[in-house]
Amino acid sequence: MKEFLKRKNIEISLKRYGIDAMAAMAQGLFCSLLIGTIIRTLGLQLGVSFLADIGKYAMAMSGPAMGVAIGYALKADPMVLFSLTAVGWAANAEGGAGGPLAVFVIAIAAAEAGKMVSKETKVDLLVTPFVTIVVGVALAKLIAPPIGQAASAFGLMIDRATNLQPFLMGIAVSVLVGVALTLPISSAALCAALSLTGLAGGAATAGCCAQMVGFAVMSFRENRWGGLVSQGLGTSMLQMPNIIKNPKIWIAPTLTAAITGPIATCIFKLQMNGEALNSGMGTCGLCGPIGVWTGWIAPSEAALAKGAVAMTPTAFDWIGLILISVILPAIIAPIINNVLRKIGWVKEGDLKLE
């Protein structure tokens, strides 16, 4: 069996499924639902129906995009990869609000099943897509609804807990999602799977921005402008090799998240009512702030289901978004890091990117 799995490039590991596949799923979501939402919102706000239609079509392809992205991460053969479009569509549709999590689980199972039979028969053109699609769509009908309901219920529980205890949950959600963003897993996919919107989504946004902007600014002396852009608009995951060498460099942005999270939930009532994916994006391509903006004027379906309504943002709302997303992390994280430098926990060069 080991030889067979090796020959089929089937690697049952946390890295392959929990890191590679999940990160790819987030990219699939980004290239369909997220970018489609942005285009559609721009079209609606500018009164350009053509743009709104483009965005709508891109958003509709989120299931197939996730399925194909996961298959690509699992190194699926072309026939398997193309068949995952149907699997992704079915799993996302059957999973409802928890569709991304359903796609994640089912696309992995279907891809691996397809890889097992790929190129094993003389009628591969029929067998491979047949097995991939039948296994995937059958699983979608059987287990996608309960997976979606469970994910949706858990996300709703987090949302309600944040509304009831905005201070404590503001800290918890901000810190945990922010840490997930810097780890080699996908915080965006996690937020999408849990349909994390509303006040909890706002706390998650605060935590992700704290990590990205915090690392970018506090490492400026080592990495200059290139590091500022690559971490501030790219990802704080670039610091993982340095975190492994000296975990104490993670203290400043994490404490910053613990500070900005409750400020977001208790003072500014910052809510992420755009697509849940944005809650875990931070300042990557400015998707976090853009998601908050789109949520103000055109709430996502998940946010609408939780009672969100379109609104006209006030000056206070804009000030809160800018402070939480950029200004506070850019001030607080370097201050904390300078204290850590003075006591010797962080040394010159510890934050240098290779």
- Secondary structure: number of strands: 0
Domain tally:
2
**Major sheet details:** none
Shape by Cα distribution: globular
What does this structure look like?
The structure is a single chain. Helix 2 packs antiparallel against helix 4 and helix 7 packs antiparallel against helix 8. The chain is mainly α. The protein has 2 domains: 151 residues, no CATH class; 178 residues, no CATH class. It is 76% helix and 0% strand. It contains 16 helices and no strands. The mean pLDDT is 92.
Compact summary:
By secondary structure, the protein is mostly helical. It has 2 domains: 2-152, no CATH class; 165-342, no CATH class.
Task: List its traits.
354 residues, mainly alpha, 2 domains, 16 helices, 0% strand, globular
Itemize the secondary structure elements and their pairings:
Elements: H1 2-7, H2 14-46, H3 49-60, H4 62-73, H5 78-95, H6 99-117, H7 124-164, H8 166-182, H9 187-193, H10 198-218, H11 220-234, H12 240-245, H13 251-267, H14 287-297, H15 301-305, H16 315-342
Helix pairs in contact: 2-3, 2-4, 2-9, 2-14, 4-5, 4-6, 5-6, 5-7, 6-7, 6-9, 7-8, 7-10, 8-9, 8-10, 8-13, 10-11, 10-13, 10-16, 13-16
